[in-house]
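help with this record:
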Amino acid sequence: MRVFFQKLWCIYELAVRAKARSFASMDFAPVWLPIFCLCNIITYLLGALMNLPWKLEPVEGDQSSCFTQLFWLIYGSPLLYFFSAIPITYFCFLKLESHKTMLDQMASFDLRMARCSLETDRIMIRRQVLGFFDEALRPPLSVSVDELLSAHAKQTFNQEQELEHSEHEYPTEPNPLEEEDWLLAWGHSGFRHVTSYPSQEEIIDEFNAYVRGPLRENVVRSFGREDHIPFKVCLVSCLPCFGTGLALILGCDGHRDCQLAALSLGFNSVIRYQVTNATMTLVLWPVSNLVVMPLLLRSNQLVARVVSSPSLRFLTGLFFSSSVVSLNACIGSVLSAMLLVGASDATDTSPLWLFGACVGLVLQFLLAFSLFLGSQ
């Protein structure tokens, strides 16, 4: 939608829609949305494919030793987060620029400045928009539905009686289209000097105010500001994360035997091992990944405001993006290791480790709530 509000024909479609329904009934889909969502899906998918050969090795020692082993096993290599941050940084800047351009165009929208290849089209579309938003052509009275239906039925009965008894000597009725064109022309110039109806320039200003006000507010309400991303978009982007979790659960973390996988992590019960593993891969990991993209957009927006050089801005954004991704993975690995250590039988189940993992998960839920709902 970079040039949508600069093209006259697009504005004409907008006016027709606004006249037929209302701005609140419109649903916008920015052109950056599918590209941005596809980039996130590919990035998560590549990371998931790299983790699929992952096989948990047996952990031994006390609780601190098991925690350290599990942390590094889940965290992986920092280079993975650096390379995954390269395409994410590029599309973050693309999303910020495209979204900001769209909102700025709507804030400064003017029908008179719209682009059109043919001047004849400009005259025709301008006339149609004037007709859509002209109060002078609207009926001054309103009739209830029941009265309207009753009057219509009575009129239909009278017409049938007249057709039966008349000799059809009445003159032909005027063309409705010609009458409408005459009314439109007369309404624009015939009586405005003696009434309070708005002029043509005031009608255009009214339409511009609609686009700058209610329509722009509807777009912001649907997609937020440039640094905001809808929850459903992040949820779709995290689908590979859910797929990875299901693969690890059904594949017993790379082992053919779930009993062997449970024993390698110190679980005597397979059911307890599967419940813990499902909590980690289907709840804790997706929640950690959901908050990444809003944090990346906010950090890159800060970089875009401070750094003006494109190359330096991208390098600075890449540093912040890789730091955010790596830090988020570190926090998720810490909570996952605490959950496994706290629920394991080999390390003498400790309520303190489980409490720490639960507190961290609650904090992540609160962070996600504030990022998706509190800032919209």
Observations:
- Residues 35-95+229-374 form one domain.
- Residues 310-343 form the longest helix (34 residues).
- Residues 48 and 77 are 14 Å apart (CA to CA).
